[in-house]
Amino acid sequence: MIATWAMAYDGVKKASGELKNNISAADALEIAIKEVENHPFYKSVGYGGLPNEQGIVELDAAFMDGDNFNIGAVAGMQDVKNPISVARKLSEQQFNRFLVGDGATAYAQKNGFERVNMLTESAKSSWEKRIEEMKKSELSPYDGHDTVGVVCLDAKNSMAAGTSTSGLFMKMQGRVGDSPLSGSGFYVDSEIGGASATGLGEDLMKGCLSYEIVRLMGEGLTPQQAADKAVYEFHDKLTKRKGKAGAMSLICMNTKGEWGVATNVEFPFVVATETEEPKIYVARKGDGHSTIIEEASQEWLDNHEE
């Protein structure tokens, strides 16, 4: 498994342990993402996620099965505990696989998914503080947009990919980023590999980078080569056309369990392999089209824990 951000560590640890017991990639992915969704202190995913400009937590999630390309997704869903589970359920449908807003919420309730007020007191306090800051200065309302994305390979060589997020803090009501969009926030093919993205959705969705990385792996590039080529070439193109590129970080893994990462910011991520216990790494852009990846130092881990 490979997953975005250090917040995924506990979920990857739990799920990778189950993978050793031969559970499916799909089950392991759902376990890993639910662990993040359920944690109240991760302010960009699930319970405790930061709200939109109206003070409402709107949740996006997606699931993809690499064996058959089944995809399920939700966007703008409210008051449902585990969006990733709803997305996975939708992937089993013949039609109506991507639901938004009230339709997604109604589907979840109809199908027995747990209903929970996802706005915690901490998240509400952060929202109220940002409202006051905006009144006193011209501070941008937007702050934070970290998606948990996971790519998983199981013992039967099946793969799955998925995402979950509360999206951009203080976003307009109804705003959707790249996370639930196939080919942009995620993509997986069990005969090649999978990828997932996190960062500024408004820029990520312009490049369909998750699909592009899988395509490049299919042409024979290693995961690291594919990630470097897709991300940095698009970063340069976007910078040339628009003057700047928003934050974008991509993870990927192939059918051999080899992995790669590319990013234009400092980006922590989690990896667990057949021979390696779950570990947090930190990536940053190197010279040219390259990525520097180092194991997270104890000082970094202590700061993160605090």
TrEMBL record:
<dbReference type="GO" id="GO:0008233">
    <property type="term" value="F:peptidase activity"/>
</dbReference>
<feature type="active site" description="Nucleophile">
    <location>
        <position position="147"/>
    </location>
</feature>
<dbReference type="GO" id="GO:0003948">
    <property type="term" value="F:N4-(beta-N-acetylglucosaminyl)-L-asparaginase activity"/>
</dbReference>
<feature type="binding site">
    <location>
        <begin position="198"/>
        <end position="201"/>
    </location>
    <ligand>
        <name>substrate</name>
    </ligand>
</feature>
<dbReference type="Pfam" id="PF01112">
    <property type="entry name" value="Asparaginase_2"/>
</dbReference>
<dbReference type="InterPro" id="IPR029055">
    <property type="entry name" value="Ntn_hydrolases_N"/>
</dbReference>
<dbReference type="GO" id="GO:0006508">
    <property type="term" value="P:proteolysis"/>
</dbReference>
<keyword id="KW-0068">Autocatalytic cleavage</keyword>
<dbReference type="GO" id="GO:0005737">
    <property type="term" value="C:cytoplasm"/>
</dbReference>
<keyword id="KW-0378">Hydrolase</keyword>
<feature type="site" description="Cleavage; by autolysis">
    <location>
        <begin position="146"/>
        <end position="147"/>
    </location>
</feature>
<protein>
    <submittedName>
        <fullName>N(4)-(Beta-N-acetylglucosaminyl)-L-asparaginase</fullName>
    </submittedName>
</protein>
<dbReference type="InterPro" id="IPR000246">
    <property type="entry name" value="Peptidase_T2"/>
</dbReference>
<keyword id="KW-0645">Protease</keyword>
<feature type="binding site">
    <location>
        <begin position="175"/>
        <end position="178"/>
    </location>
    <ligand>
        <name>substrate</name>
    </ligand>
</feature>
